[in-house]
Specification:
This protein is mostly beta strands. It has one domain (2-178): Jelly Rolls, CATH 2.60.120.200. It has strands at residues 2-3, 12-15, 22-24, 27-33, 55-58, 64-72, 80-88, 91-99, 104-112, 114-115, 118-122, 127-135, 138-144, 151-156, 168-174, 180-191. The radius of gyration is 15 Å and the shape is globular.
Length: 202
């Protein structure tokens, strides 16, 4: 299903389970169902995701920054609101505000065949600003407590599956252990540029 958000210059489509996505007055809302997640464990032999999670994604052209203030209705460990980038079935990445496991934390997952998992900094409350940026093959994750000063979280590519400029980006919700949660995204912003300096807080 196509989904239009006026702040974004590209259409979005739904992927995975039904996220009950809605948009009104500048606020995007999505729901994760019980035990929905997107993760390919590096432990053991399996390369299959443990589950799947609602995603709302589109394909911007050229350099960009996608920004949103994310608020999560935490109910269980690892409930999260996510900015998500995807180039293949085993090549995708998540920038999350996650209940990890009982303290809200900015964390990242980069999947190249299997997923890794890395925590950044903790957050007071249920809200943080997230930003995903791209130039060429490079992707960068940033987070901010106030939407003004940004903390550099991660710089990476998604491996051989990633072609220059070929990526879906957007939003995801998850509740791996819980019965579901609601996530809102507001202060949505799209910039047709790569950050001038990844580490200076801008």
């Amino acid at each position: 299903m196509d989904f239009e958000i006026p702040e974004l210059p590209f259409p979005l489509r739904t992927y995975g389970p039904d996220g009950n996505w809605s948009y009104e007055d500048g606020v995007l809302t999505g729901w994760a169902g019980a035990r929905q997640d997107r993760f390919v464990t590096p432990v053991g032999e399996s390369v299959e995701p443990v589950s799947d999670a609602p995603r709302l994604l589109g394909a911007p052209e050229g350099d960009f920054q996608l920004i949103a203030r994310v608020t999560v209705g935490f109910r269980a460990a690892f409930d999260a609101g996510v900015l998500y980038a995807h180039v293949g079935d085993r090549a995708w990445a998540k920038l999350c505000l996650e209940n990890s496991p009982d303290v809200p934390t900015v964390c990242t997952v980069v999947t190249r065949g299997h997923s890794d998992d890395a925590n950044s900094f903790t957050v007071e409350g249920r809200t943080v600003w997230l930003r995903v940026s791209r130039t060429g093959r490079a992707l960068a994750f940033h987070a901010s407590r106030d939407g003004e000063r940004w903390t550099f979280v991660r710089l990476f590519t998604l491996g051989d599956e990633q072609e220059t400029g070929a990526a879906l980006v957007g939003f995801m919700t998850q509740s791996p252990l819980g019965e579901g949660c609601v996530v809102t995204y507001d202060h949505l912003e799209f910039r047709s540029s790569w950050p001038g300096d990844l580490r200076d807080g801008s």
